[in-house]
């Protein structure tokens, strides 16, 4: 019997901590378990992580030696900031004497706002350094200031040198002094390579403020996992959708802040294999909406307490409507859905009635869920004494939008009784089955229109094809929102299998990830870009990523002179599953379905061992100032890159592709760039270029000119044999 390759993911939610086991070879769910999230435990949410893991291993009969990977998300860092569970931080700034007048106030942070009414206290010292200072005198000054701030109650320290972006040696020397004194510390260059002393110092200080709590949590988790006999790498979910190892967590716990929505998006990419679409993770109170384009989740700069910090987080937008949202009523109609939920109000869904409740006795009552709320929220009293309510989950069940087997399937008779009571109260709708359906549609219409502006904005900002965008639902409330939303927007949709544990699956499937960003004098300099790329690759490989799986994406912002290299790679374990491969007809059908054309109108453009590229002429309606104009139609040659399992790995509204060998790749790239470049006010605009090398997708989009594309392509292909298969794709 083959040795099992089990990947374990644990997602810490507001109410429950979910743990799942995923077969690393077939990407199928092996089992799941959940325990209440341990917010009030002395160990914090780490206690629930350990308990969920133990329950999962026991219920699924998983031997510790069969676990190849274990990762968890955590709300510990986020909660620490929201609740002010941080230590006082000593900030030690430094610069040369000539710059001290500017650098000293930039490192004096005072009380740092973390959330509404929540602050972190800091102390401040500054050293204006003379170039002639000896090493011993320098270290003596560092020690003196650190110990002085320790005496003021500081339990962690942030060390920030004005030009550590260019030369971190003084910060590193100061960090060594802190380590010798047994003090926890963060340096500015550890958290960011970007200029901007104040923001870099603030980021380092916030990171230092949560160090003690996070190191304690990491140590407890590691000890418990090792005591369970699991020797696999332990990873922590990052806010940008990847994972990091415990060593990185102990240095930069700030990267786990805002990681809650990241796990679901990771599942959409790695488990559901969505290459282009909008992902909606629907809970009971709110819906997190994000975009995936070309297999990558969109990210943005983060803010804490209303101030910018140097870290990247997924661009996830939260809407206050979900599966458990309450209705607000006027005398004759539904006037709103949400933001309050049944959970907050202590009400049961009619879809999931309380035991021994009499649904035939439902009677409308208006309530005020919280003291500051309006008193027009719907509740349904029963003779059993347990109050219920109607929600989008109930409405979707009534309209037949909840798929069989979904966790949201509810008691239809109880739901009908609830809507009957509501139609009696709102007399304008009349009585009977049709009136109930009109009310359910009205409810879902309000909920959908709260999501539509965000979905449209994400489609436009990420240049997704508005005609072909797929809505993907995850979370326990997905069926309550996504099917009706897709119907209103006239888009295709799918509900994720095992939607209720999709975030935990995302944690289990997430890639090791690191982003290195730096400001450079010349963004067209190839050496600087290649050096940054190499550093990002080394970083993920050091955390345990398999070198054969590492992919790097380069972004260049010519306005700010920032070059950003993001490397992702799978942890070393298992291999690809050959059993799920589709035949040629199956892959072609998948491509045709994605492009919304008949299979006979789809042609194979080129192929390699791992990928087949299909194309078709696709006609779509035009627009004028964002207004749809169906009579303004255009036709383009669309592309779909399909892997052996039939997963769409890449979509292009318009594109071209070539098959070649490693040695012929440079010529193919040049041909595609010259054939499809355009000229504008800013000069030559090149198409986005991507390489398919082995099983990897190498994204070279976002670069400024031909030579940058070719330089990175040479670097990516250097390790390949001369006759290696390469597919070159141009998107335009």
From TrEMBL:
<feature type="domain" description="Hydantoinase/oxoprolinase N-terminal">
    <location>
        <begin position="7"/>
        <end position="180"/>
    </location>
</feature>
<dbReference type="Pfam" id="PF01968">
    <property type="entry name" value="Hydantoinase_A"/>
</dbReference>
<dbReference type="InterPro" id="IPR045079">
    <property type="entry name" value="Oxoprolinase-like"/>
</dbReference>
<feature type="domain" description="Hydantoinase A/oxoprolinase">
    <location>
        <begin position="200"/>
        <end position="514"/>
    </location>
</feature>
<dbReference type="InterPro" id="IPR008040">
    <property type="entry name" value="Hydant_A_N"/>
</dbReference>
<dbReference type="Pfam" id="PF05378">
    <property type="entry name" value="Hydant_A_N"/>
</dbReference>
<dbReference type="GO" id="GO:0017168">
    <property type="term" value="F:5-oxoprolinase (ATP-hydrolyzing) activity"/>
</dbReference>
<dbReference type="InterPro" id="IPR043129">
    <property type="entry name" value="ATPase_NBD"/>
</dbReference>
<dbReference type="GO" id="GO:0006749">
    <property type="term" value="P:glutathione metabolic process"/>
</dbReference>
<protein>
    <recommendedName>
        <fullName>Hydantoinase</fullName>
    </recommendedName>
</protein>
<dbReference type="InterPro" id="IPR002821">
    <property type="entry name" value="Hydantoinase_A"/>
</dbReference>
<dbReference type="GO" id="GO:0005829">
    <property type="term" value="C:cytosol"/>
</dbReference>
């Amino acid at each position: 019997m083959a040795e099992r390759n089990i990947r374990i993911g644990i997602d810490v939610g507001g109410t429950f901590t979910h743990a799942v086991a995923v077969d690393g070879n077939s990407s199928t769910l092996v089992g799941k378990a959940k325990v209440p999230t341990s917010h009030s435990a002395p160990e914090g949410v780490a206690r629930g992580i350990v308990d969920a893991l133990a329950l999962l291993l026991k219920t699924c009969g998983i031997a510790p030696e069969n676990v190849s990977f274990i990762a968890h998300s955590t709300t510990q860092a986020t909660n620490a900031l929201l609740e002010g569970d941080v230590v006082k931080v000593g900030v030690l700034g430094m610069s040369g004497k000539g710059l001290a007048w500017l650098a000293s106030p930039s490192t004096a942070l005072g009380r740092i706002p973390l959330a509404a009414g929540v602050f972190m206290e800091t102390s401040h010292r500054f050293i204006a350094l003379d170039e002639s200072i000896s090493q011993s005198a320098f270290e003596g000054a560092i020690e003196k200031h650190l110990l002085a701030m320790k005496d003021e109650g500081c339990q962690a320290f942030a060390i920030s040198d004005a030009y550590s972006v260019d030369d971190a040696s003084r910060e590193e020397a100061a960090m060594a002094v802190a380590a010798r004194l047994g003090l926890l510390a963060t340096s500015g260059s550890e958290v960011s390579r970007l200029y901007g002393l104040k923001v870099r110092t603030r980021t380092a200080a916030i990171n230092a403020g949560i160090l003690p709590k996070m190191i304690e949590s990491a140590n407890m988790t590691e000890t418990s996992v090792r005591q369970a006999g699991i020797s696999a790498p332990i990873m922590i979910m990052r806010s940008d959708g990847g994972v990091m190892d415990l060593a990185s967590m102990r240095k930069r716990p700030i990267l786990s802040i805002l990681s809650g929505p990241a796990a679901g998006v990771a599942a959409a990419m790695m488990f559901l294999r969505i290459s282009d679409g909008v992902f909606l993770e629907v809970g009971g109170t709110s819906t997190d909406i994000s975009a995936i384009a070309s297999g990558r989740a969109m990210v943005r700069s983060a803010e804490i307490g209303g101030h910018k910090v140097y870290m990247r987080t997924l661009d996830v937008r939260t809407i206050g409507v979900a599966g458990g949202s309450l209705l607000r009523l006027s005398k004759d109609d539904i006037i709103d859905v949400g933001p309050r939920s049944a959970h907050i109000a202590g009400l049961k869904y009619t879809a999931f009635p309380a035991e021994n409740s009499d649904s035939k006795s439902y009677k409308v009552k208006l309530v005020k869920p919280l003291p500051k709320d309006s008193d027009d929220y719907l509740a349904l009293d029963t003779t059993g004494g347990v109050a219920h309510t109607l929600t989008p989950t109930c409405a979707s069940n009534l309209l037949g939008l909840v798929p069989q087997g979904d966790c949201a399937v509810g008691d239809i008779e109880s739901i009908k009784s609830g809507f009957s009571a509501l139609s009696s109260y709102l007399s304008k709708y009349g009585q009977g089955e049709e009136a109930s359906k009109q009310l359910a549609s009205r409810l879902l219409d309000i909920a959908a229109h709260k999501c539509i502006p965000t979905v449209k904005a994400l489609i436009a900002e990420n240049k997704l094809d508005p005609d072909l965008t797929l809505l993907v639902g995850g979370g326990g409330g997905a069926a309550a929102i996504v099917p009706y939303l897709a119907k209103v927007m006239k888009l295709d949709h799918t509900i994720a299998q095992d939607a209720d544990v999709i975030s935990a699956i995302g944690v289990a499937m997430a890639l090791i990830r690191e982003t290195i960003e730096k400001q450079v004098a010349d963004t067209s300099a190839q050496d600087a870009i290649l050096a940054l790329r190499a550093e990002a690759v080394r970083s993920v490989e050091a955390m345990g990523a398999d070198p054969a799986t590492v992919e790097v994406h380069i972004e260049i912002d010519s306005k700010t002179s920032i070059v950003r290299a993001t490397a992702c790679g799978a942890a070393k374990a298992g291999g690809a599953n050959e059993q799920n491969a589709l035949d040629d007809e199956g892959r072609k059908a998948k491509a045709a379905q994605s492009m919304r054309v008949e299979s006979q109108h789809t042609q194979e453009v080129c192929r390699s061992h791992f990928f087949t590229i299909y194309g078709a002429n696709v006609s779509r309606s035009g627009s004028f100032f964002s207004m749809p104009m169906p009579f303004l139609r255009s036709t383009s040659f669309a592309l779909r890159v399909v892997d052996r399992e039939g997963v769409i790995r890449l979509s292009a509204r318009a594109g071209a592709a070539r098959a070649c060998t490693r040695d012929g790749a440079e010529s193919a790239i040049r041909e595609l760039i010259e054939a499809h470049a355009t000229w504008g006010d800013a000069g030559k605009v090149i198409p986005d270029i991507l390489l398919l090398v082995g099983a990897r997708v190498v994204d070279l989009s976002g670069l400024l000119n031909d030579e940058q594309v070719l330089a990175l392509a040479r670097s990516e292909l250097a390790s390949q044999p001369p006759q290696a298969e390469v597919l070159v794709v141009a998107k335009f």
